[in-house]
Prior knowledge:
Layout: H1 2-20, E1 29-36, E2 43-49, E3 53-59, E4 64-70, E5 78-85, E6 88-96, E7 107-113, E8 116-121, E9 129-132
Parallel strand pairs: 1-7
Antiparallel strand pairs: 1-4, 2-3, 2-5, 5-6, 7-8, 8-9
Amino acid sequence: xxxxxxxxxxxxxxxxxxxxxxxxxxxxxxxxxxxxxxxxxxxxxxxxxxxxxxxxxxxxxxxxxxxxxxxxxxxxxxxxxxxxxxxxxxxxxxxxxxxxxxxxxxxxxxxxxxxxxxxxxxxxxxxxxxxxxxxx
Length: 136
């Protein structure tokens, strides 16, 4: 019985490790793009999940901040970003497992413009739709 418990624990650790790295995914793999389309001053952003803080970034115009991850084994992945530009700010979910179907072909694509945040799922060609307004 003890050997079975040890084996199941080891197996769970392997699944958890594989689902958090992009090589050897056993769950769907996604790439998030947050593209700065703003003129000066630079866009400040911070993106994170419950388990992974991607840090604070300051990006110039046309910079594509992106990362790739494997969805959690339990389909409960959530990534969010906080953005600041001039006197504007916004915080929003860039990925949730519940809405993963929006990210066609495993790609979630956001463009940040002076009038708001636009989204398109999938690779090019993209049809962007406004998702969020800036808050002041």
